[in-house]
Write a structure and sequence with these properties.
Layout (H helix, E strand, L loop, with lengths): L5 E7 L3 H11 L2 H5 L6 E6 L23 H4 L8 H13 L4 E6 L6 H7 L2 H8 L2 E4 L5 E5 L8 E5 H4 L3 E11 L2 E3 L1 H6 L5 H4 L18 H7 L3 H12 L4 E10 L5 E10 L2 H10 L9 H8 L10 E5 L2 H4 L12
Helix pairs in contact: 1-4, 4-6, 11-13
């Protein structure tokens, strides 16, 4: 029997709203999701830090500014607001009526980055609920077949969602890539329990910090990857979307790309985005570990790429220092 490949779409060029709509149409999102109109949809962008040009950058709660600000004014470090708006509208246009946008910013008070991009106004216009996952009540969920975490505190909007959409930025970070899996695996952990940035350096959470010495000793530079996979196994991503308006290189400069990726398998979607960076998915620890855990496939032969061919749109991205295992 022929293996049924998982679809991942790549769309390049055109207006942002058209790009997002086409990416979802190419994977037949509405019919494949097969959800009722009142299904609980959570859309989780990457809004981790306040851009340096924001009027909120000098507020006490903006303790980490976008690290790209000196080179590209912060562009690419977080999900572009026009892509967030287009995604919310696309789900509205598909007929969904119960949509929540949620983030647990790790580098600032979430409220400040929401205000920077008028997320509240955007949500009011489109009839979308907005929540700060850092302060929601959370459920303590055990991690099955774990790498390192016995349990994860999962915010209410996440564990009650019928569909969690990871709306990530297309970027390298540290010694790895930061895409759909890391957007959720690091970005939903509530500061109420772990401290603002989950390492507990700025605000003490109610529980121990998640990045522990024994994890680093066991996994080395794959420690964060192991934690990410554990979190994603109890907070599954039902739809992965990657904002490729820009791509962030390993030397932290951003390049305009005007692309977007979408797929139901977050491992496959991240793998396609990695291939479009001219990297090998097999060199990305979080994808290997997630595939091993059964969260998806990072095998290109098992992925049905729709829209633009990878070879036509891939970019020679500068690798981060220490990239790979």
């Amino acid at each position: 029997m022929e293996y049924l490949k998982t679809p991942v779409s790549i769309v390049k060029g055109g207006q942002v709203e058209d790009r997002v709509t086409k990416a979802l149409e190419l994977i037949d999102a509405k019919n494949t999701l097969n959800l009722q109109a009142d299904a609980n949809i959570l859309i989780k962008p990457n809004l981790a830090r306040v851009p340096v040009e924001s009027k909120y950058a000098k507020y006490k709660g903006a303790y980490e500014l976008t690290t790209l600000s000196n080179k590209s004014n912060g562009e690419g470090d977080i999900t572009h607001p026009e892509v967030i708006r287009a995604t919310l509208k696309a789900f509205r246009d598909m007929g969904f009526t119960n949509i929540t946008l949620g983030e647990a910013a790790g580098g600032c008070w979430t409220d400040l980055v929401y205000k920077t991009y008028d997320i509240y106004g955007m949500a009011k216009e489109l009839g979308v609920r907005v929540t700060d996952l850092n302060w929601e009540d959370a459920a303590k969920i055990p991690v099955p077949n774990r790498y390192v975490l016995d349990y994860v505190w999962v915010p209410r909007s996440v564990y009650e969602a019928d569909l969690q959409v990871s709306l990530a930025a297309w970027k390298c970070w540290g010694n790895h890539v930061t895409l759909s899996l890391k957007n959720v695996g690091i970005g939903i952990l509530p500061g109420k329990y772990y401290g603002w940035n989950r390492a507990g350096r700025y605000v003490e959470g109610l529980d121990k910090p998640i990045h522990r010495a024994e994890t680093r000793a066991r996994f080395g530079k794959r420690a964060t990857d192991a934690e990410v996979v554990d979190v994603c196994s109890v907070a599954p991503i039902g739809l992965a979307m990657i904002d490729g308006t820009t791509v962030v290189h390993g030397d932290q400069h951003a390049e305009r790309a005007d692309m977007i990726f979408a797929g139901f398998d977050p491992v496959a979607t991240d793998a396609v985005a990695v291939l479009c960076m001219s990297f090998d998915p097999k060199d990305v620890a979080v994808l290997e570990m997630a595939a091993e855990k059964g969260l998806g496939t990072n095998d290109p032969s098992k992925i049905d790429v729709r829209g633009e061919p990878i070879d036509k749109v891939k970019i020679k991205v500068v690798k981060p220092r220490g990239f790979g295992y």
